[in-house]
Write a structure and sequence with these properties.
Layout (H helix, E strand, L loop, with lengths): L2 H8 L3 H14 L1 H7 L3 H11 L11 E2 L4 H8 L8 E2 L17
Helix pairs in contact: 1-2, 2-4, 3-5
Length: 101
Amino acid sequence: MNAEALLERYGGKARQVLENVRPIAESYIDACLVLDLDAEDAEDAILALAEMEGCLSCQHSRAPRNAEEAARQKGYLPVQIRSCALGLSQDGCTARKPIIP
């Protein structure tokens, strides 16, 4: 998502949202390479799910270990599959930190 679109959608929170989504997008870099995508494509895909509940909207979520293989098999970026950088499970998680503040 370009800067103008981020500002339009998130207003004064745009910079924080971008800072929150970048580490998640970077964790998908190998899967992006398989699909000939760039970091902005990953950011857009992650932001499309950022308003959902649970891990999909958490700053601590990261690509699973098999993201590259999943991208190769499925032919799309598997951003709906996440693992927790803190090693927590979604059930009873008390560390959830929203991507969109």
